[in-house]
Amino acid sequence: MEGKYPVVTLCGSTRFKEQFMEAQKRLTLEGNIVISVGLFGHSGDQEVWENMDEGILTKTKEMLDDMHKRKIDMADEIFVINVNGYIGDSTCSEIEYAKAHGKKVRYLEKI
Fold this sequence. Notes:
- The chain contains 4 helices and 4 strands.
- It is an alpha/beta fold.
- A 4-stranded parallel β-sheet has the order 2-1-3-4, sandwiched between helices.
- Helix 3 runs parallel beside helix 4.
């Protein structure tokens, strides 16, 4: 199968690492190019944060948030990992950003 593959950026709380991995596999097998998070700050990857002072931690989190917006810019749509309906503040901001930029928004669970 040749052609243009839709690009999907995954959004949601990083506490749902298992669901991110499942969605990534499923969406890929459905013929999408999937962009995901680089770190799972709420469910692993603690070694990244443990030696950072508060200033560097804040700057790093701001960079990662901005980087995720750039991933949304690259996508045709976002796929929200909203396990048990949970959508946190960062994810709400990403959904608003995606909608403001004309991106389609799909959800793991009906809202």
